[in-house]
Design brief:
Layout lengths: L3 E5 L11 H6 L3 E5 L15 E4 L14 H14 L4 E4 L1 H9 L3 E17 L15 E13 L5 E6 L2 E7 L3 E4 L7 H10 L1 H6 L4 H36 L1
Parallel strand pairs: 1-2, 1-3, 3-4, 4-9
Antiparallel strand pairs: 5-6, 5-7, 7-8, 8-9
Length: 238
């Protein structure tokens, strides 16, 4: 039986993106839980990997979106079971919260392409070890995370923490490693008013997207293959 990954997805236009093909090529089965549509959580402990994606809501909006608390509980279950877990943007913020860290409004927004800088710990990290010391990735966030106590900071960029590892099987990123050009262009079209209201230029971001897409997709595939290997190794230990 194939190893199974549970994907927590929050928006129809924010799926696995560039991460999906390598996961499927590795033979992993992928189930998607849209908690805002189906509040009842699946049996998280039965999965071999968990990926928590980004979304347009913020991590402190539990009163408006009760499913956020359900997702934190699901992430806590994954952490307790030592299931390999990856959180992206909102997912990274929820992972930080679930593990005892925090997420809060940023002093300013980041929308577009930014240079991510590795800490010395990234080179020996099981998931990110093949990444260069500096690499580009896409940002679209108004909140940021503070890694949980005991976590290892793996990358930073601008004024923000950008990636951390919690324990040896959970990772959170602020950047959107999963996006390819098609997604970025779609987001820029949908969020055009938001982009301009925060002082960013959509045409400049779009042009940079086309220039850097192949490089960024290659990084995403690299990370996805590594995550699949970690998931498969975990599956054999159960």
């Amino acid at each position: 039986m194939a190893s199974r990954i549970l994907v927590l997805q929050h928006d129809s236009d924010s799926g696995l993106g560039s991460l999906e093909a390598p996961l499927r090529a590795a033979g992993l089965a992928i189930d998607v839980w849209e908690s805002h549509v189906t509040p009842e959580a699946p049996d998280v402990a039965s999965y071999h990997g968990v990926i928590v994606l980004g979304g347009i809501v913020n991590p402190d909006e539990d009163e408006e979106h009760a499913w956020l608390a359900s997702e934190r509980t699901a992430i806590e279950t994954a952490l307790e079971a030592r299931i390999p877990t990856l959180g992206v943007c909102l997912g990274g913020q929820l992972l930080a919260q679930a593990a005892g860290g925090s997420a809060q409004a940023s002093p300013h927004a980041e929308i577009g392409w930014y240079e991510i800088e590795a800490t010395p710990s990234l080179a020996s990290d099981e998931l990110f070890c093949d990444f260069p010391e500096r690499f580009p990735s896409f940002e679209w966030h108004y909140y940021c995370f503070e890694p949980p106590p005991g976590a290892t900071l793996l990358a930073h960029g601008g004024a923000f923490n950008q990636a951390f590892r919690y324990g040896d099987r959970a990772w959170g990123t602020q950047f959107h490693i999963e996006v390819a050009a098609s997604s970025v262009h779609e987001w820029l079209a949908i969020g055009a008013a938001d982009v301009s209201s925060h002082g960013f230029d959509a045409e400049t971001i779009a042009a940079r997207t086309d220039q850097i897409d192949a490089e960024h997709v290659a990084l995403a595939h690299q990370l996805s293959r590594r995550f699949a290997e970690i998931v498969e190794r975990h599956a054999t230990e159960r």
